[in-house]
Structure formats: C-alpha cells, structure tokens
Amino acid sequence: AQTVTQSQPEMSVQEAETVTLSCTYDTSESDYYLFWYKQPPSRQMILVIRQEAYKQQNATENRFSVNFQKAAKSFSLKISDSQLGDAAMYFCALWGNNAGNMLTFGGGTRLMVKP
Amino acid sequence: NAGVTQTPKFQVLKTGQSMTLQCAQDMNHEYMSWYRQDPGMGLRLIHYSVGAGITDQGEVPNGYNVSRSTTEDFPLRLLSAAPSQTSVYFCASSLLAGYNEQFFGPGTRLTVL
User: Which of B112, B100, B103 is nearest to B35 (CA)?
Assistant: First the structure.
C-alpha cells in the first residue's frame, strides 16, 4: 500500500513572502509520480506541479517549485512571492506504477495568505 | 470544451434512498475516477475506469457501484444511502492513467439524513 502524509493542517504566509508545504510519502515502487494539487474556495481542483521520480531535477512552474528528496521520501512545495490568490487547500498526491493505477492523496494543508 | 461536468451540484437524501451521480467528459480521456472528500482526509478513491467497459475498485468502494458503457460517461450509483456517505464527491478524468494530469469536475455535495 502507498501512503501520503501532510503534517501541517494549516499554514499562513504574508503576501510576497515564501512558504514551504511539507509532504512525505511511502511506497515500494521504483517508478512513481508525485503531484501537488490546489483547491481554492471555489472547490475546483487544479494541478500545480508534477514530478517524475526517476528525474533528479526538481520540477518548477513559475513561482512554484518542489524539493524532491527521494531517499527521505519527501516532496515539499515552495511558493515564492505569495499572492492572495494562492490561498487554498493544497494536496500532495502519489501514483505508483504497480499500485493498481490509483492516485493516493494526503490530507491537505490549508494555506492562508495575509495581506 | 466543457471539460468534466457533474450533476447535481447538491443533493439531500434520506437513509436508504438510492441515487446516481452523473459525470461526463468531452476530452476523449480513457481514465476516469470518483473520489470522496471528507475533512482532514483528503480525497479517497472510490472507483476508477481505464476505458469503456473496464472498472475497478479504489480505496473505499463499499456502498457504491459504477459502470462505463461509453468513453464519455462514468456514473456513480449509491444503492442504499447511509449517513456515512455524506461527503463531497469529485469525478476526474485524465488522458490514459493516474500519472497524467487529472481534470476534476466541480463536485457534488451530498448529505444523507
């Protein structure tokens, strides 16, 4: 079985500052993918960033970047220059090649952005 | 493209009633899935399908049935609703598999009294 743990139920950040959301996972797979999804108050889930486990380079998407530590099974999301529109629930997710084609989500972190 | 659509947006049921949550996508995606979202538990996979005629169970399948007769549609049936099924339900689709970007519908908030 694969598991995803987000240990921070809530985080807050000042507008324009940087925040890091934590995610740890457990899998026996060697071939897997990790994701961060954002869910704003509208409830619409949106992909933020995707990392393939076999790639050493950390994925980046504009102000969003990850710190992928494969040996430690850690996958944190860094948001730079935080904006009010970044306020949302953030979910870490894991897909493993032999885990029955299922995507496993963590419990989520609620991010608040202070003006 | 409408993307992924779900109906209804809200529903209140009494214990023991049955209903079907509808999900459709117009992106010709092979992979479709149903999740439930409960506070503090993230999204949990109920059922998924890798193509028309093929379905499989996720983490929490009990009390739910699915079928996939076409590529576009993936309805979720609650056979006999229970209060424990009160949740927000999301349908998602992706090109081929779970490792592709998932496109989510707007969700259905279901309350079972």
Answer: B103
